[in-house]
Prior knowledge:
Layout: E1 2-6, H1 11-22, E2 26-31, H2 40-48, E3 53-56, H3 62-71, E4 75-80, H4 87-92, H5 94-112, E5 118-125, H6 149-167, E6 170-177, E7 179-181, H7 200-209, E8 215-218, E9 230-231, E10 233-235, H8 236-251, E11 259-264, E12 270-271, H9 272-283, E13 289-292, H10 307-313, H11 321-336
Bound molecules: uridine-5'-diphosphate-4-deoxy-4-fluoro-alpha-D-galactose.
Amino acid sequence: MKILVTGGLGFIGSHTVVELQNEGFEVVIIDNLSNSTEEVLDGIVAITGKKPIFEKLDLREKNAVQDFFKKYQDMSGVIHFAASKAVGESVINPLLYYENNISTLVYLLQELQQKPEASFIFSSSCTVYGQAEKMPITENAPVQQPISPYGNTKKIGEEIIADTAKVTNINAILLRYFNPIGSHPTTQIGELPIGVPQNLVPFITQTGIGLRQELAVFGDDYPTADGTAVRDYIHVVDLAKAHVIALQRLLDKQNLDKVETFNLGTGTGSSVLEVIHSFEKVSDKKLTYKIMGRREGDITEAYASTTKANEVLGWKAKFTLDQAMDSAWKWEQKIRS
Ligand code: UFG
């Protein structure tokens, strides 16, 4: 079966391509290389022994998208990762985000709605919950008005898919990720942030390797056990596997609704200081860090209820924070060597 993976050379996309190929799917990747490189393909080949089809394509080019679907008419499913994801950049340039994340989704769905049936997996985010009232966060927690345009593209994206699925042959699963970290255990693929990393774990590993002087810990006055903010850090390989399971569910017509939603997290919250200590443990290094003020837009805590994904998808994250951190650290060392 042929599966289209948009953004398939990105961080989560590339790990998912590996898992799809390992499960025997034939993969076609679309990527515009805006935040990735073609060399990622070599990593995928090194792990799986198979080269996916790759088409360099920008989903904002509607005609190119139409031509693509004329060329590949035998696609069984689509996993849609391609999107911009920098929260701060989205505040500065909202229209870039609405074009990159919303126009592209519309063009894709316009093609898929013409098919007798279509299975669609969407990369969403726990950002749609904002600061949820209750922990752990279940899929029934209310969706809140997001703080950033990036977050809003995820909320609107979910709504567009739900409205479209109602009146077409599209079946969809929305996957709300918590905080993906780590890299493939082979260190053939991993996260490649451009410029100064905005996310905690790549900033930590870059500080550990000496690329950054010190980590700024954004706030130690949160109402949490140690005062630093709490998140649910999930190994990217666990996350990737969940995509394959969700896709298979749609292909097997096991879904109970036209659109289903699942949280993807470990169920465990870790504070920024706990993440730092995990790094220090797996690397056997002391990390230089300084407590700074809170970062605008940050929430206090978010960790997932994993019950639905566990019971309905039969999926559970297997890797611990230390294992994920260890893989992130090995990857950092590899790319700097
Ligand atoms: N943090 C620091 N120092 C840093 C970077 C991060 O202390 O240099 C802290 C943050 O304040 C936060 C935690 O580490 O408390 C995690 O921050 P990340 O930027 O790694 O992750 P976020 O939870 O802020 O953001 C992630 C995704 C976003 C998504 C959001 C949804 O990166 O794309 O979850 O909640 F929108």
